[in-house]
Amino acid sequence: MAKQKIAITTDCVVFYKASSEKLKILLVERKNEPFKNDWALPGGFLEDEEPLEEGAKRELKEETGLQIFEVYQLRAFGNPGRDPRGRTISIAFWGEVFSEEKVEGSDDAKDAKWFDLENLPELAFDHKQIIEFAKKVYKSEKS
Amino acid sequence: MAKQKIAITTDCVVFYKASSEKLKILLVERKNEPFKNDWALPGGFLEDEEPLEEGAKRELKEETGLQIFEVYQLRAFGNPGRDPRGRTISIAFWGEVFSEEKVEGSDDAKDAKWFDLENLPELAFDHKQIIEFAKKVYKSEKS
């Protein structure tokens, strides 16, 4: 097997349609470097024997308390340089909830909050790009 | 950074539309274990600092001689157990050529050949599943 210096993470874009006009997504405030105190998608390192979608659901639950049962893969985001710690490839997912579920930051997250998709804070890593991609996929799925 | 035992590969499904009825794809015959002598998508291990799509194009060139300039990501295929050597996640791409380009097996490939998509040989790893997914994406892009 090739000896690579590449780590794998999963991230999840959870949508909540608050009204016909307003989409919200769930973000967490990072407790640790890099991007400490910035907002990011809930996510983290995949475990060695964990299916991709299980990693996404586990990290979501650990960081926000939110448990969802179905997530759908978007694609991999893996540009070299997207993570200042070293090469990291994120497999990104999306999911949906149908009410504004109570969430609470825990584990690697100081806080967890629903944000209006059209009014997002500064985002860690390439998460802005992941969210843009997820928004297109969500809208095409729902159209 | 997490210490993971997960390797990253890229694979590429190259389509050639031979007629309005017939799609072909490019496969390679594996020179090495696992799945030695079986047919598979051109692909292999990503280099540490290599963008994902560059990995897909490099492996395609190395194994078949075919150089293509644009590849499009399908998604990651990463079920534990898909590779008998250990956990491997493949980021899969698709591309297209507009004539039945001459190809030749080299590097890790003993042979390279165009196959009718509706008449494929036994395939290594989960490449049958990757091809099924690619076929849907290709057909929806072209419809």
Automatic annotation (TrEMBL), chains A, B:
The keyword Cytoplasm does not apply. The keyword Nucleotide-binding does not apply. Keywords: Hydrolase. Residues 5-139 form the Nudix hydrolase domain. Belongs to the Nudix hydrolase family. This is NUDIX domain-containing protein. It comes from Salinimicrobium gaetbulicola.
